[in-house]
Write a structure and sequence with these properties.
The chain is mainly beta. It has two helices and nine strands. Its EC number is 1.13.11.3.
Length: 193
């Protein structure tokens, strides 16, 4: 091939289902040990467009600490039992469920508190990112992102339950979760220049 010929772009590869073998690690879903004072459970189910649970997805969480500080401590992949890093990863089980043991995040710089989530699942070319806001107080209209989501804003708000918070992720369909574009990441349909 001559140097003046350009190669045609090829489609991306889907991200799964190999990640169940490559991404989980010991303590991945325990951002804090069970029994830690103030520990809560963030849990839910990953569902496809027909409402069927996805048994081979991986969910990642990033969050601020309870004081609203973005943690910048090493150790997310090697839990030491006392350092809160604000990052966790959980493979869904056979019923599409995921669960994290963590702390309730505080709002960063006076903003609303939320969990940032990324979902990897079969058939996806890229991870999907979203937010799970803590339940809003009555009369609270949210922040700019929630207002921009309009009638779909409920897909961005976790529900309180006796153990913490439940947040189901709908990959498609009428209840599809609002997914976000991360600056600097290529999304399907974009062309690199």
């Amino acid at each position: 091939m001559s140097t003046d010929q350009r190669l045609a772009p090829t489609p991306g590869q889907t991200v799964g289902p190999f990640f169940h073998y490559a991404l989980p690690y010991d303590g991945d879903s325990a951002l804090v040990p069970h029994g830690t004072a103030g520990a809560v459970r963030l849990h839910g189910t990953v569902l496809d467009g027909l409402g069927v649970p996805v048994p081979d997805a991986v969910v990642e969480v990033w969050q601020a600490d309870p004081a609203g500080r973005v943690v910048q401590a090493a150790g997310s992949l090697h839990r030491d039992g006392y350092t809160f890093t604000g990052f966790g990863r959980c493979a869904t089980d056979r019923t599409g469920r995921y669960s994290f043991t963590t702390l309730t995040p505080g709002g960063v710089d006076g903003g609303l508190p939320f969990f940032a989530l990324a979902v990897f699942a079969r058939g996806l070319l890229h991870r999907l990112t979203t937010r799970a806001y803590l339940p809003l107080p009555d009369g609270q209209d949210g922040d700019a992102l929630l207002r921009a989501a309009g009638e779909r804003r409920a897909t961005l708000v976790a529900a309180a339950d006796p153990d913490g918070y439940r947040f189901d992720v709908h990959l498609q369909g009428p209840d599809e979760t609002v997914f976000l574009t991360v600056p600097g990441e290529t999304v399907p349909g974009d062309r690199a220049s």
